[in-house]
Amino acid sequence: MIIGDLSRQEFQELLAGKGLGIQFGPFNLRIRSNLKSFAALAYQLYEPYPLLTAAVISDFHVDMNSPPGLRRWLRPQACFAIDGHSPFAPYTVEHAFPALEWGINWCVATRAHHLLMLHSAVVERNGQAMLFPAWPGHGKSTLCTALVHSGWRLLSDEFGLVRPEDGMLLPLPRLISLKNDSIDVIRHFRPEAIIGPSFQATRKGTVAHVRPPVDSIKRAQEPARPRCFVFPRWIAGAPFTLEAMPKSQAFLMVATNAFNYEVLDEIAFRLVIDMVNSCDCYSLRYSNLDEAMAALDELSRSFDA
Q1: Looking at the predicted structure, is the pLDDT value of residue 1 above 70?
Q2: What's the number of domains the chain is made of?
Q3: CB atoms within 10 A of CB 192
Q4: Which end of the chain is least crowded, N or C, by CB within 10 Å?
Q5: Which of the listed residues 111, 141, 168 is the one where a domain comes to its end?
């Protein structure tokens, strides 16, 4: 059963009552919210995701609600909470949806230490995964969105989840968060993509959320083997380059892009070494999205050569 099997009324009642259970890849979440405006958008963007029964144990219990007292009337706000604790200052009520998405990322990054977590977009084709470790603003989400709407499968826009026992990458195909100019780039590049509204003046600028292709969501239990690291950097007007990177440099960049490298210690060290040694490693500089995608398609064809 998926979220879309519920009527809007059923969805809203679950959300405001005992909580809505949603499966995102390896994680089960139970979400509660008393915000009607939030419910309408969540129903649209979460529609293809698996719906969990009340009996399923949840990894995270999260809330996005109005704070108590007069503030809910005088200055409407939204508070994110995990297991009854609010780790962030309240948001304006208009930013409730992006606040929930950021909050879920925070839950994964701070609690899923049974996995190595790389700050990386991950896409897959023919069972082989391409990872894009990058800092914010380097163009990984734009590139990732374009690829998954052009025949690649989304594993994640935010997390490269590495299973320690075998080094496989676990899918977490949640919504892709686009920021600022990249929103219009994707709207024009793939008009068929399902993109939510743009939220202006958030703590991270203008933000919009892209729903992954349904196939990526349906295949959220299919891991993939890492095959290639590409370290992207979008630079306005820059000439395109795709160059092999020394593995010593790649190791440092992967390790510094891990959320919990220090937590896992030797386990993380060995996982990153194994991944880098078994993968091709490249640096990518681009300003033209079509040019970058064509080069990555060509690169993926060489995997089986």
Answers
A1: yes
A2: 2
A3: 7
A4: C
A5: 111
| Residue 34 and residue 132 in one domain | no
Write out the E strands in 34-88.
Answer: 51-52, 60-65, 77-82
Q: Are 226 and 271 in contact (CB under 8 A)?
A: no
Full DSSP string of 189-237: H-TTS-B-PPEEEEBTEEEEEEPPPHHHHHTTT--BEEEEEEEEEE-TT
Asked if 272 and 134 count as a contact pair (C-beta separation under 8 A), the reply is no
DSSP β-bridge partners for residue 90: none
Which among 56, 39, 52 has a CA at the least distance from the CA of 2?
Answer: 52
Nearest to 154 by CA among 194, 121, 196: 121
The structure's pTM equals 0.94
Expressed as residue numbers, the domain containing 232 is 116-304
Query: Three-state DSSP class for 165?
Result: coil
- pLDDT digits 0-9 by tens, 154-209: 999 999 999 999 999 999 999 999 999 999 999 999 999 999 999 999 999 999 99
CA neighbor of 287 nearest in space, from 207, 205, 182, 197: 182
**Are 199 and 98 contacting, i.e. CB atoms less than 8 angstroms apart?**
yes
